[in-house]
Amino acid sequence: MITPSTHNSLTHGDLLSLMQKQAYEKHFEETLNQHDAAISRVISSYEIIKARQEELYQEISVALWKALAKFDSQSSLKTYVLSIAHKRAISHVAKYAREPRSTELNEFEMPVNNCPSEQLSHAQRMSKLLFALRQLPMLERQLVTLALEGVSYKDIAEILGMTTNLVGVKLNRAKTKLKTLMTSAN
């Protein structure tokens, strides 16, 4: 915060730089808050261990902090943020790929009604979905999670470096696999 005594000692350039930094910090915080739920869902589709989910969230936050200044509005901000989240999640998963994984399901918390039976039902559906998502190969997992976030085929194609038609074909196959995995989990 700028106080009257520090304001007098700052040069015009310092003051502009400080104001730009504060504006960037505010933009970053607003972006992170606006897309927090989507980032959390991406994280939970890649990582089952809570401590590593938190670590991945921090990694994504740092990557977003570094990349946000480069956002050129060629896609939506949501697409840009999800692209960063998925790329960071892939590198995170690769880092821990050699370690043994727990098959125990952790609940994924999302806001639901206060009715206990609805909360339980919702938690069970989310656990089943996340478990099935984690069984998909990486590319299929990316396609499904981006589609679940409402990202267009065109933007998914841009994020993953493929054609829009290929996104449609592979996404339909991934959805079929996901449905099979979810019904076999019953």
Would you give an account of this structure?
With 186 residues, this protein is mainly α. The chain folds into 2 domains: 10-97, Orthogonal Bundle (Rna Polymerase Sigma Factor, Chain: A), CATH 1.10.1740.10; 114-186, Arc Repressor Mutant, subunit A. Helix content is 74%, strand content 0%. It contains 9 helices and no strands. The protein has helices at residues 4-9, 12-34, 36-46, 50-67, 77-96, 116-135, 138-148, 153-160, 164-184. Helix 6 crosses helix 9 (164-184) and helix 8 crosses helix 9 (164-184). It is globular and about 70 Å long.
CATH topology of the largest domain: Rna Polymerase Sigma Factor, Chain: A
**Helix percent band:** over 70%
- What order do the SSEs take from the amino end to the carboxyl end, as H and E? HHHHHHHHH
Output the structural class: mainly alpha
Rounded to the nearest angstrom, the distance between the terminal CA atoms is 56 Å
Number of domains: 2
**CATH C-level class of the largest domain:** Mainly Alpha
Shape verdict: globular
Low-confidence stretches: 100-112
- CATH architecture classification name of the largest domain: Orthogonal Bundle
Cα Rg? 20 Å
Give the mean pLDDT. 82
Q: Treating each run of at least 4 consecutive H or I residues as one helix, how many helices?
A: 9
CATH superfamily of the largest domain: RNA polymerase sigma factor, region 2, helix turn helix motif
* Major sheet characteristics: none
